[in-house]
Amino acid sequence: MVKLKKTGIVMSPLKDQLGCFARFNPGVYFKDGIVHMLYRATNSDIKDGANYISSIGYAKLDLDNKILYDSNKKVIFPTLPVEVKGCEDPRIVEFEGCCYIFYTAYDGVKARVSIAKTTDFIQYNKLGVIDHFGYDKDAFIFPERMNGKIAYMHRISPNIQLDYFESIEELLSKDAWTGYEDRIDRSVIMKSEYDWEKRKIGGSTPPIKTEKGWLLLYHAVDDKGVYRGGAALLDRKNPSKLIARLPYPILEPEEEYELFGDVNNVVFPEGAYVFNGQLKVYYGAGDKYIAAAQIDLDELLTELIKYPVPNA
Fold first, then answer.
1. pLDDT band at 100 (very low <50, low <70, confident <90, very high)
2. Which CATH superfamily is domain 5-304 in?
């Protein structure tokens, strides 16, 4: 068995600053030795539902996870009726010349996927909201086109879906999603298989291309509400094809900051990159903190291929 090696808390709530109650669930983008991080922040206790509204802040970290800059202000925040109760859980994907940000827009009733983009992490342009029949989360695209199309992974509970589009504009169009409820089964690429995934699964970090396939880190929730992180491989040419999957989690709540928080027993990976052969992972802990972990990429891939998916 392999496990992510935890390196501790990277960011905590700070009094009188953005996210004074919680800073968690970060997306990251690594370039030129700098980790660009978008993190979810809230200033109010989840138990006070009327005021629990999330926004997204920005920070820069070095390779040792030292914070070099913290915006201490909202860079993505509710401006639309569909996100009046929060902008949550950003993922960052570099795609065709800019960074696209996929985050959850929540109106208090339904979760939808929203898309923004940036080239400098200073200006952010909201592109629109994906709206269809379902409660949708845990979304991102692959960093390159697959057979000429944009591959969009998302989660309509309890499974993970993958759909293909010609453009971002098509992805955001209502016409593209007409009748999706009737054809969703054709889009499902992963379902719960093990007890630690019993309630639901969802994509965590945007996929990373490796010589063995697309590495997907995902999260899973058991029937007691405990969140864990798993790993799978998707085919390089056809990512709708699952080729390998670990039967056990590589990340689970063990530390005090993971076991106890605003929501107990939660580890929630959202950002990752590879540097010098090491897979660096950033995750939300207890819906309160941001923590980091790592593993040798080759070690993880070697373990994954021991567990091929039948008929893959």
1. very high
2. Glycosyl hydrolase domain; family 43 (2.115.10.20)
